[in-house]
């Protein structure tokens, strides 16, 4: 899919097979919620996130026991051919853990350091620099991630005092937003001064509210060339978290701001962690920035479509596409850009189906019980009877093979389905 939006970031950061920034695609990141000390469980969740489409996975490294398991987790993933880079999330004691466990420092693809949580006073600079020195020693990139809830208290106090003494003081929220940006930029410069190359630095400045996030990242993007990691720090649960994340990130992405993103959804008890990956992919896909799976245009239903048949068919087709995509993606490059229409009556059904790569227009209430099928803008056949769903998914499979594959027999198979009497 062509990227219609010019990205602001000109600098690139390379993490194993993943390139962040510049001309590269916006990268989808996720984070585990397992106890890192349990290597088997953590590796399984990382695998599920990677298979769902996460291109970076962050893990908590908060204790000696956790740090001791990181290299083992990397080994388990490599044995399963899961190459996704791991990002170590360090707070408070990261300087000690990186020094004590060199195998952990080596196994991670990137470090995430929150400068507000690395110590106080003189120790803050010393411990921050110690972690940056580890990144230099092992050739690792670093995300310097400042956060509204753990902002450097000394910096904030100085800026609040300076603002109070100003002739035209700002609102406290504005000072907080500026402090986030200043903290990110100052710590990036401190990392460079220690020896970390500028092309190994990613910045983030996360907050919990949509308008604050937009304001902070616009400011940050205008003042640096570092790749930026996007995300609300606590988006929330369910639809609220999805809507909040989509609202904030869509604005920034449309302006070319953002190079990686993570959707920080609060899962329901025993909920599927991969949901945050799917939401991130859907945001990027609906904005035309990336394509991950064929797009299904489906009728919402109205009084003309009192039957639930088309809803059930749309659900079946979505499920069919998800089930087939792992295999299709390997065999048929470009299939993720395909558009499928599943419509419910004659008002918009034929038109939407004609505009899709392949579409079906199902009968609405009172309409003749037949379903015309369109391929590449042309009506190719009409399906009838009780097996419309099965017949259409068979056509869909044959269409993908014929259009995106190289096998000559694929077109013959599709032709036979379209003309069964021949």
Give a written overview of the molecule.
By secondary structure, this protein is α/β, with parallel strands linked by helices. 46% of the residues lie in helices and 17% in strands. It is built from 14 helices and 17 strands. The strands form four sheets. It has an eight-stranded parallel beta sheet. A five-stranded mixed beta sheet has the order 13-14-15-16-17, with helices on both faces. The longest helix has 23 residues, at 172-194. The model has no long low-confidence stretch (mean pLDDT 93).
Strand order of the largest sheet: 8-7-6-5-4-3-11-9
Q: What is the CA-based Rg, rounded?
A: 25 Å
Beta-strand proportion: 15-25%
Q: What's the main sheet like? A: 8 strands, parallel
Shape: elongated
Average pLDDT reading: 93
Helix percentage:
40-55%
Q: Give a count of the beta strands, DSSP E runs of length 2 or more.
A: 17
Q: Span from first to last CA?
A: 37 Å
- Low-confidence parts lasting 5 or more residues at pLDDT below 50? none
Put simply, the count of helices is 14
Provide the structure class.
alpha/beta
């Amino acid at each position: 899919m062509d990227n219609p939006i010019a990205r602001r970031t000109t600098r690139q950061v390379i993490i194993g097979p993943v390139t962040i920034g510049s001309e590269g695609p916006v990268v989808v990141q996720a984070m585990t919620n397992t106890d890192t000390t349990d290597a088997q469980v953590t590796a399984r969740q990382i695998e599920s996130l990677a298979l769902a489409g996460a291109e970076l996975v962050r893990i908590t490294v908060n204790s000696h026991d956790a740090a001791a398991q990181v290299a083992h987790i990397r080994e388990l993933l490599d044995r399963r051919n899961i190459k996704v880079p791991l990002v170590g999330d360090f707070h408070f004691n990261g300087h000690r853990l990186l020094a004590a466990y060199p195998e952990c420092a080596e196994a991670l693809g990137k470090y995430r350091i929150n400068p507000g949580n690395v110590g106080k006073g003189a120790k803050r600079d010393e411990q921050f620099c110690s972690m940056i020195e580890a990144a230099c020693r092992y050739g690792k990139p670093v995300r310097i991630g400042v956060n509204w809830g753990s902002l450097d208290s000394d910096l904030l106090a100085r800026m609040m005092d300076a603002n109070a003494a100003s002739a035209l003081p700002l609102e406290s929220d504005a000072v907080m937003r500026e402090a986030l940006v200043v903290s990110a930029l100052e710590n990036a410069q401190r990392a460079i001064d220690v020896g970390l190359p500028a092309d190994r630095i990613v910045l983030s400045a996360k907050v919990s509210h949509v308008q604050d996030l937009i304001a902070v990242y616009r400011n940050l993007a205008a003042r640096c060339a570092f790749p930026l990691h996007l995300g609300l720090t606590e988006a929330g649960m369910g639809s609220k978290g999805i809507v909040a994340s989509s609202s904030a990130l869509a604005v920034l992405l449309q302006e070319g701001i953002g190079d990686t993103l993570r959707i920080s959804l609060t899962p329901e008890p025993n909920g599927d962690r991969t949901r945050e990956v799917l939401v991130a992919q859907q945001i990027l896909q609906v904005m035309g920035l990336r394509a991950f799976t064929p797009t299904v245009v489906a009728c919402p239903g109205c009084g003309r479509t009192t039957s639930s048949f088309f809803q059930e068919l749309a659900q079946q087709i979505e499920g069919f596409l998800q089930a087939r995509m792992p295999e299709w993606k390997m065999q048929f490059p470009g299939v993720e850009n395909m558009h499928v229409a599943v419509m419910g009556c004659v008002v918009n059904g034929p038109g939407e189906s004609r505009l899709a790569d392949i579409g079906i227009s199902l009968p609405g209430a009172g309409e003749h019980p037949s379903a015309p099928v369109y391929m590449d803008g042309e009506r190719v056949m009409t399906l009838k009877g009780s097996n419309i769903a099965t017949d259409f998914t068979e056509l869909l499979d044959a269409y993908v093979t014929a259009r995106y594959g190289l096998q000559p027999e694929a077109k013959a198979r599709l032709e036979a389905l379209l003309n069964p009497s021949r």
